[in-house]
Amino acid sequence: MTRILAISDIHGELELLEELLIKVQFDATQDQLILLGDYIDRGPASCGVLNIVAELQATGARVLLGNHEALMLKACRSGIPKAWNHWVSLCGGDATLASYGYKAEDFEEALLTNTLPQYIQTLPKLEEHLQLIETFEMYIELEDAIFVHGGVVPNVALADSEPLQLLWIREEFHTGYQGEKTVIFGHTPTYKLHQDPTNYNVYFGDNNIIGIDGGAVFGGQLHALEWPNRHITSVAKPKVNEPVDSLE
User: What CATH fold (topology level) applies to the domain 3-66+136-246?
Assistant: First the structure.
């Protein structure tokens, strides 16, 4: 039987992603991989993560849009200074630019002359990845499960939902969802769902929701959820003063 594996909120943590794929013994010919978004920002290697995402998509992985990819697209495609500054200054976009070898100030002239989208089109790898992001799906619905980045709007059909709500929704979904299908989602680090700043484990909600954003970029864990058996495989960075070989 083909395994369904879900991973979310990598946030530029390339080494953790590579480690997790090895640990879970991912096989593109046997497994259906579903990536739930937020591949970029904050972490050190967003460009490298998107390179792997492109390779995985080419071999059959289904790739969802995260709110951080949506922010990047809006910033780069619109050229609106407010959108650009919001992404770069507040949401970790500066780390993403650095992974391509750029600094925020490299784009100042294009911002001032209202030519940012045109300028970005001259940067091959960045433009390639923007075009990749434009292919990402919003959600995946199976007979028994829904895979989505942020969550679903309670009592609203997926097809009728505003796309941005599927990327950004939190509390309304966490407490209000009562659907029959299990919703597997990222976006909200699980320590917030557990209401415990030390608990980055996968969150299994009583209302048929499963949160898998282990806050890897914040020192937590990167998880792979196997569906439908709910088996979890996780990796984490070694803690300070913790021997590397002590980790499982």
Answer: Purple Acid Phosphatase; chain A, domain 2 (3.60.21)
Burial class (CB in 10 A: 0-12, 13-18, 19+), 152: buried
Distance, CA of 73 to CA of 64 (rounded, Å): 14
Residues forming beta bridges with residue 100, ordered by sequence position? none
Cα torsion 81, 82, 85, 87: sign: negative
Supply 29's token pair: 């010919």
Tell me the per-residue pLDDT of 99-147, one tens digit each, with 9 for 90 and over: 999 999 999 999 999 999 999 999 999 999 999 999 999 999 999 999 9
Taking alpha carbons only, the member of 77, 109, 82, 88 closest to residue 46 is 88
SS (H, E, C) 1-66: CCEEEEECCCCCCHHHHHHHHHHCCCCCCCEEEEECCCCCCCCCCHHHHHHHHHHHHHCCCEEECC
Which H or E run contains 33?
strand 31-35
The model's pLDDT over 12-66, given as tens digits with 9 standing for 90+, comes to: 999 999 999 999 999 999 999 999 999 999 999 999 999 999 999 999 999 999 9
Q: What is the CA radius of gyration of the chain?
A: 18
Q: Which amino acid is at 144?
A: D
Each domain of the chain, given as residue ranges in start order, spans 3-66+136-246, 69-133
Helices (H), 86-235: 93-99, 108-112, 116-120, 124-133, 163-168, 171-176, 190-194
